[in-house]
Amino acid sequence: MLSVCQIKSARAILGWSAADLAEKSGVGATTLRRYEMGCGIPNANVKTLQAIKSTFEEAGVEFLGDPLVNPGVMLHLK
Fold first, then answer.
1. C-alpha angle with apex 46: 44 to 50, nearest 5 degrees?
2. Which CATH architecture has domain 4-73?
3. Cβ neighbours around 12 below 10 Å, total
4. How far apart are CA 5 and CA 63, in angstroms?
5. Residue ranges covered by each domain of the chain
6. In terms of DSSP bridges, do strands 61-64 and 72-75 run parallel, antiparallel, or are they unpaired?
7. Cβ neighbourhood burial of 1 (10 Å; 0-12, 13-18, 19+)
8. Which helix (H) or strand (E) segment is 53 a member of?
9. DSSP per-residue string spanning 9-49
10. Is 52 helix (H, G, I), strand (E, B) or coil?
11. How does 19-44 read in b/e, with b if 16+ C-beta sit within 10 Å?
12. How far apart are CA 51 and CA 43, in angstroms?
């Protein structure tokens, strides 16, 4: 599970735009923008959230904490 804060933070720590994430994850840019306008856990298909999470993890992002209580991200440099 991912929170909106974690998605935004992961993009920021990698220096990716929404278009970058859309291209790398296969999730539409409009869908990503809709998720990022919300708060908490995006109302999304589990498969879509997994695609986003996997893309970030492949880039070195680790998701920390509980997405609703204390969401966080950490970048592991390669």
1. 110
2. Orthogonal Bundle (1.10)
3. 10
4. 11
5. 4-73
6. antiparallel
7. middle
8. helix 46-58
9. HHHHHHT--HHHHHHHH---HHHHHHHHTS-SS-S--HHHH
10. helix
11. eebbebbebeeebbeebbeeeebbeb
12. 15
- Residue 78: exposed, middle, or buried by beta-carbon count in 10 A (0-12, 13-18, 19+)? exposed
Contact 2, 49 (CB under 8 A): yes
pLDDT tens sequence across 54-67: 999 999 999 999 99
Torsion of CA 42, 48, 52, 53, to 10 degrees: 80
For 9-31, the pLDDT digits (tens) are: 999 999 999 999 999 999 999 99
pTM of the predicted model, to two decimals? 0.92
